[in-house]
């Protein structure tokens, strides 16, 4: 895709702000020639190699390249890219249905069969990604959206490919990026990564979806990471009393220490929980449901923490502006993707800035 150098406002009417991040914002835009609605990701880019204000152009180019290769119903689509000296604008699919977890939390009751309908879409999108040798590396509830929630069968959209990586043949790739409660042991151990890293994250997401608990999360990020390394998780009966045995088996085959032993996306789609082989398996699944009381609590806490961290980062940024002489040293902290502002293992929490806002 060729980067356009004309002014984005010449081709699109710039509308309301939909969201904002460390180095940019997302705005609703309208294509003047067709009237079609899109989202514009306005990303501040670094003016010089030594600057810490903005995203490296190469990072945006990498995300554009990956999105071009990922044309799939369950993955956010890219239409145009504009660039000028200090800003790049990605015109992407307008995803207006909000986060999947928010959609589910608004319901009174959700059966496992209903949850599986969404998980199948996630697995199909991830499976397509992996067929292109691309790993997302940041699968979590915030990055699983719905194209439109006011329809009978909402469509899943996977977003935020700022940490994604396309593997080359024979390549060994290592990274210590991601969000603590969703990362597998190989990230913490700085071992070679693969598409199996995403499958661990899907196991964690499924566990949370069914129970309203996070399998490894503890009071601090350090304790969470220790629990992951120790493979310290269980299925408390008082929480999983409404969960089918096949659902637990599905999770167990994803939360596996050895990446090679984890189910692939294709294997997940033919697992007996996703695709029952007998009437008994189907009946057991249909009788089971999400622990909605716990799930609503988890989601409310998650949303509160996201809001708290955003306010905290904004306040911190304002202080840094006032202390401009020390800004270069301090601004590195703003690139962390931590869920616990009291405790941030620096080496693990440091992530490449995602260009998604």
UniProtKB/TrEMBL annotation:
The gene is si:dkey-240h12.4. Signal peptide: none annotated. GO terms for biological process: intracellular signal transduction; positive regulation of apoptotic process. Residues 12-274 form the Protein kinase domain. Belongs to the protein kinase superfamily. Residues 333-357 are annotated as: Disordered. ATP binds at residue 41. SMART domains: S_TKc. This is Protein kinase domain-containing protein. Keywords: ATP-binding, Kinase, Nucleotide-binding, Serine/threonine-protein kinase, Transferase. GO terms for molecular function: ATP binding; protein serine/threonine kinase activity. SUPFAM superfamilies: Protein kinase-like (PK-like) (SSF56112). The keyword tRNA-binding does not apply. GO terms for cellular component: cytoplasm; nucleus. Pfam families: Pkinase (PF00069). PANTHER family: PROTEIN KINASE DOMAIN-CONTAINING PROTEIN, SERINE/THREONINE-PROTEIN KINASE 17.
């Amino acid at each position: 895709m060729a980067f356009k150098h004309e002014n984005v406002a010449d081709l699109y009417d710039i509308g309301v702000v939909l969201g904002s991040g460390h180095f940019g914002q997302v705005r609703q835009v309208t294509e003047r020639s067709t009237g079609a609605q899109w989202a514009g990701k306005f990303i501040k880019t670094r003016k010089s190699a030594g600057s810490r204000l903005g995203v490296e152009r190469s990072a945006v180019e990498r995300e554009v390249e990956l999105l071009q290769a990922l044309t799939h119903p369950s993955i956010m689509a890219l239409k145009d890219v504009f660039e000028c000296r200090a800003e790049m604008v990605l015109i992407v699919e307008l995803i207006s249905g909000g986060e999947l977890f928010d959609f589910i939390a608004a319901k009174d009751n959700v059966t496992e069969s209903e949850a599986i309908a969404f998980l199948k879409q996630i697995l199909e999108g991830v499976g397509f990604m992996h067929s292109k040798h691309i790993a997302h590396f940041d699968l979590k509830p915030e990055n699983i959206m719905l194209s439109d929630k006011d329809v009978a069968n909402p469509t899943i959209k996977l977003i935020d490919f700022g940490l994604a990586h396309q593997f080359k043949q024979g390549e060994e790739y290592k990274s210590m990026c991601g969000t603590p409660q969703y990362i597998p042991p190989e990230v913490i151990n700085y071992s070679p990564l693969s598409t199996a890293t995403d499958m661990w994250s899907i196991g964690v997401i499924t566990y949370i979806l069914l129970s309203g608990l996070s399998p490894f999360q503890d009071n601090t990020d350090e304790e969470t990471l220790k629990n992951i390394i120790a493979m310290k998780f269980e299925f408390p009966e008082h929480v999983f009393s409404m969960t089918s045995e096949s659902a637990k088996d599905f999770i167990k085959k994803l939360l596996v220490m050895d990446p090679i032993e984890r189910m692939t996306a294709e294997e997940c789609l033919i697992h007996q929980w996703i695709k029952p082989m007998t009437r008994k398996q189907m009946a057991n699944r249909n009788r089971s449901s999400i622990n909605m009381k716990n799930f609503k609590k988890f989601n409310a806490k998650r949303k509160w923490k996201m809001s708290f961290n955003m306010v905290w980062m904004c306040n911190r940024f304002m202080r840094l502006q006032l202390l401009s002489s020390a800004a270069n040293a301090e601004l590195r902290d703003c690139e962390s993707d931590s869920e616990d502002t009291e405790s941030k293992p620096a080496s693990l929490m440091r992530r490449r800035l995602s260009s998604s806002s």
